[in-house]
Design brief:
There is one protein chain. Among the domains are: about 120 residues, no CATH class; about 250 residues, no CATH class; about 230 residues, no CATH class. It is globular, with a radius of gyration of 35 Å. Strands 13, 14, 15, 16, 17, 18, 19, 20, 21, 22 and 23 form an eleven-stranded mixed β-sheet that branches. Strands 1, 4, 5, 6, 7, 8, 9, 10, 11 and 12 form a ten-stranded mixed β-sheet that branches. The protein has a two-stranded antiparallel sheet with strand order 2-3. By secondary structure, it is of the alpha+beta class.
Length: about 950
């Protein structure tokens, strides 16, 4: 057609859109919803992806580097060695000593989430930590420094007391700009002033202008403000000036396990710290996070140490590409029914164009013009609303992910591309309706009759073939961990189901003969109007499929993280103990725990946690010297075939891949060995095994790992002497030759929580070993997760009993929100609900003539409402059912690809200590969606149907 004809078509399309505002609004909404979701997701994702300068500002401020001395950090495996060379990752987080051979992934890489930790391996701990080295003595040319000291202190709270991280850090200095965000008040200026993070303020009941007390010294501080750490909004930290908090004694906690403050130094150095200078500092034992390296990372071949996390990320399946491909398909299928219904509603107008002399190209051009006009409006509206939604949801995303988003990052070209895709898809979606309208007989168009069209028998057969072919392609792509092939396969499979939609509607309509009037009419109308029903059904299917795929991937990854989680007790259980000795130098050795102290512990716990149930735990401790500097302990000897060859020397690289050298304990814990009966075992570990009760009754022991019990059902228990080394800093275990090896009946059980390499012994077994069980603490089931206030009250009550008491609350696995999956889930849900409602609304608009017919023959308003509800409900139900099929297929295939990318490349020794990636399909939520979405669609249709009878003229 000529340019003038196109202008005329566009003018007609614009006038028709303004004349039928309701129908046009629905079509615009159908296009705008996916554009809104994609544009909001794009802006949010770009904002969450910190650029290099933002990352440097949050972690380094305006410094050129941040330097730490791992040899000085008490608790590290190289503590006490002055200048042991280390190897570090590019980001300056993870490291290992250079004395230990490095085995690059995948030979020793765990799955994502299993961090290597900030500790080297291979060097034995020494007896004392050296003095902190001045970075200037190692790194030349430093012009400015700023120290950042961190340790744990015990503070008073509004409810009791709590151990929190304390940082002596002048964050207002220019060198630290950007690392801490002031929320309220001001920074501390004097040694008796502090600021707290917002998370700590809420949990401890602090207020700006109030006071807190550091309980080790009794010093009181005034709270002058609150702050946020941009990279960790959930941190409970108190800030003060140098010399404010950490000069006096601090409190040992499980979080840091040390009295020593960890010191980092921000430095400014002309020319920065390139990778070559970082390696020089590593040879002197310093760990460096360099701004220059973050801006210009070295090539992989120049990195002597890559962490498992870096290796896993390099092999991870790109979920973004899969989401983008499926999102484009959703947009096409969502826009299709909009123009199909629009063209059907305009059949008479299009017929009049033919009567006036317009050709088939002009009729098709008018429909295409509607695609251009309404597509442009929908794309513009969706992009605009997407920008607004992204801005409004920034605080919510920060709260869920625990990190502040970066600057509001609007990529104009990307948004224009999304809008252009929206317009293009609007035009493509109008192609088929335009082709059908151009083929329509003018006389039939003027009569307004629909007729009945039989579906082709070849189309559903082709759809089934496409479904099978697409599934095979997707599985092939998953096995190769290729996201492009996965997208192609899922798209082909989804299009195959789209082709099956008309046939499925026809099969479902046969059930109408068994149903009452309203659902029978709805099913027959859906079958008679398949050109309208099938696209609407496909639209709902596409929207639901995206949400279901995200739900499957999210549930599966959460299950992987839950399986990798190692608890210290059963969920919602409280462990209370009193150290019978203190391993830190300069402190007196503790006396044994008394029965009176344990009774006080019981009263405090039951008063603070009403309804908590539990009991006392006894420790399997042998005779001690009078000053308790050395006590007898007990270990179970492994069977020879299960012992690691490290005991006989050899190549350390071989140990790394040997499953016998891989730690595989089912749990951690504060109590290594416990004495008790079957009830205590069940309370502490959750093990309810009749075999364990039987062995304990026979005077035996219960173990939680394989490799200790011989064919005769007994295990060898060795007595050792546990003494403190010089200064009390390190424990030395050596067998006691004066005491023979004892064989005891034993059983290995699988428990929700197990003692790490420990023994659960019966009182009779303790007597056989010559042990004198002492009360070590108590375990209580709180029934639910205690609040922060209850925890602080407990800490206060236990501190009054003994300054050696400790408290641990196992809150269980706490899932962390991945910003990528969170984005996909939120906007997939928005698209699903919105598209389902609009698709059913379009179907309802196309069925108004039938409602007029019902009114003309005297049908009451209830029948008309029920008919509308069932019409929408049928489309929503069938679309949701197919969407569940496609979504589960896509989610399972993606999980298969993730397994192929990571798990299948790991050696058996590493696989043996990890849980394999699982596929978790949330069947209960999917079943709920299958019920709720059709009900919502039906209720919406019923509410929008007029009660008043509207008589419309019928054409012959």
């Amino acid at each position: 057609m000529s340019a003038g004809s196109w202008r005329a078509c566009l003018r007609i399309a614009r006038r028709d859109a303004l004349r039928a505002k309701g129908r046009s609004a629905l079509i615009v909404a159908m296009i705008a919803i996916p554009v809104l979701g994609m544009s909001a997701a794009d802006v949010t994702w770009r904002s969450a992806q910190l650029d290099t300068d933002e990352l440097i500002s949050r972690t380094l401020g305006q410094a050129d580097a941040r330097v730490r001395d791992p040899a000085h950090e008490n608790g590290s495996s190289i503590s006490g060695q002055f200048a042991v060379p280390i190897r570090q990752d590019v980001e300056g987080h993870d490291w290992q000593t250079d004395a230990w051979p490095t085995t690059s992934p995948p030979s020793g890489a765990p799955l994502p989430g299993a961090e290597s930790g900030n500790a080297g391996s291979g060097s034995a701990a020494s007896t004392s930590a050296p003095a902190q080295r001045d970075p200037g003595s190692v790194i030349r040319g430093i012009t400015e420094t700023l120290t950042d000291r961190t340790a744990y202190v015990t503070l008073s709270t509004a409810y009791g007391r709590s151990s929190v991280a304390a940082r002596e850090f002048e964050y207002t200095k220019p060198l630290a700009k950007g690392m801490v965000v002031q929320r309220e008040g001001r920074a501390p200026n004097a040694r008796d002033e502090v600021v707290v993070t917002e998370r700590l303020r809420r949990s401890a009941g602090y207020r700006v202008g109030g006071q807190l007390t550091e309980l080790a010294t009794g010093r009181t501080f005034r709270i002058v403000g609150t702050v946020d750490l941009p990279q960790d909004l959930r941190a409970s930290t108190v800030f003060t000036v140098p010399g404010g908090l950490l000069d006096g004694p601090t409190s040992r906690t499980p979080a840091n396990g040390s009295d020593e403050a960890v010191t980092a130094t921000l430095i400014r150095i002309p020319g920065g710290m390139p990778w070559s200078r970082v390696l020089e500092a590593n040879r002197q034992g310093l760990l460096v996070r360099s701004a220059a390296v973050l801006r210009h990372p070295p090539a992989e071949s120049e990195q002597p140490y890559r962490t498992p996390r870096q290796w896993a990320e390099s092999r991870a399946l790109r979920l973004g590409g899969i989401g983008l491909g499926l999102g484009l398909l959703e947009m096409i299928l969502l826009a299709g029914p909009a123009f199909a219904v629009g063209a059907r509603r305009r059949r008479r107008e299009l017929g009049l164009i033919g009567v006036a002399g317009g050709g088939r190209r002009h009729i098709g051009g008018v429909v295409l013009g509607g695609g251009v006009v309404l597509g442009a409006v929908g794309a513009l509206l969706g992009t605009t609303l997407g920008l607004v939604v992204a801005a409004l949801m920034r605080p919510w995303f920060a709260e869920r992910t625990g990190q502040l988003l970066g600057h509001y990052d609007v990529r104009v070209l990307e948004l224009l591309g999304i809008a252009a895709v929206g317009v293009t898809i609007g035009v493509l979606a109008a192609l088929v309706p335009a082709w059908l309208a151009a083929r329509e007989d003018v006389a039939v168009s003027l009569t307004g009759r629909r007729g009945v069209r039989r579906g082709s028998r070849l189309v559903p057969i082709a759809g089934i073939v496409a479904l099978a072919l697409g599934t095979a392609i997707a599985v092939y792509g998953a096995d190769r961990a290729d996201e492009t092939i996965i997208v192609v396969g899922v798209v082909v499979a989804e299009l195959g189901l789209v082709a099956c939609c008309p046939a499925l509607i026809g099969l479902t309509a046969r059930l109408g003969r068994f149903l009452p009037l309203s659902p029978r009419l709805a099913l027959r109308d859906a079958a008679r109007s398949r050109p309208r029903s099938a696209p609407a059904m496909a639209a709902v299917m596409a929207a639901v499929a995206g949400s279901v795929a995200v739900a499957v991937v999210w549930s599966s990854q959460t299950a992987d993280e839950r399986n990798a989680y190692r608890p210290n007790a059963l969920t919602n259980h409280v462990l209370v103990g009193i150290h019978d000795s203190d391993p830190f130098p300069g402190r007196p050795v503790g006396a044994p725990v008394t029965a009176g102290q344990i009774e006080e512990v019981r009263r405090v716990v039951e008063r603070t946690l009403p309804g908590a149930k539990g009991g006392v735990l006894g420790s399997l401790t042998g005779p001690c010297t009078p000053d308790r500097s050395e006590c007898a302990g007990y270990r179970v000897r492994k069977l020879p075939e299960f012992r690691c060859p490290i005991e006989g020397g050899g190549d350390p690289a071989r140990w790394h891949a040997d499953p016998r050298c891989v730690f595989s304990s089912p749990g951690n814990g504060f109590f290594r060995s416990v004495v008790g009966d079957a009830d205590t075992l069940r309370e502490l570990t959750g093990a309810d095994d009749p075999r364990a009760a039987e062995v304990l009754a026979r005077g035996g022991i219960v173990l939680f790992e394989d490799g200790y019990i011989g064919p005769d059902g007994t295990a060898e228990v060795v007595t050792y002497r546990n003494g403190a080394g010089p200064g009390g800093m390190s424990a030395m275990e050596k067998p006691d030759p004066a005491r023979p090896v004892v064989r005891l009946p034993a059983v290995m059980v699988r428990a929700p929580f197990g003692l790490a390499s420990g023994i659960f012994a019966s009182p009779a077994a303790a007597a056989t070993l010559g042990a004198a069980p002492e009360p070590a603490g108590a375990v209580y089931d709180a029934g639910r997760s205690p609040s922060d206030a209850q925890k602080q009250r407990l800490e206060e009550g236990l501190a009054r009993i003994s300054d050696r008491a400790f408290l641990f609350m196992e809150r269980g696995f706490q899932d962390k929100d991945d910003v990528r999956l969170l984005l996909l889930a939120v906007f997939a849900l928005v698209i699903t609900v919105g598209a389902s409602g609009v698709a059913t609304g379009l179907a309802l608009a196309d069925g108004r003539q039938d409602l007029a017919t019902l009114g003309a023959v005297g049908a009451p308003p209830g029948v008309r409402r029920r008919l509308s509800a069932f019409q929408s409900g049928v489309i929503a139900f069938l679309g949701t059912a197919l969407g569940l099929v496609v979504g589960v297929l896509a989610g399972v295939v993606v999980r298969r690809g993730q397994r192929a990318a990571l798990w299948d490349t790991l050696p058996p020794a590493i696989q043996g200590r990890l849980h394999a990636p699982t596929v978790v399909v949330p069947w209960s939520r999917l079943a709920l969606a299958l019920v709720v979405l059709p009900l919502l669609a039906g209720l919406l249709a019923a509410l929008l149907t007029r009660s008043r009878v509207v008589l419309r003229g019928r054409t012959a």
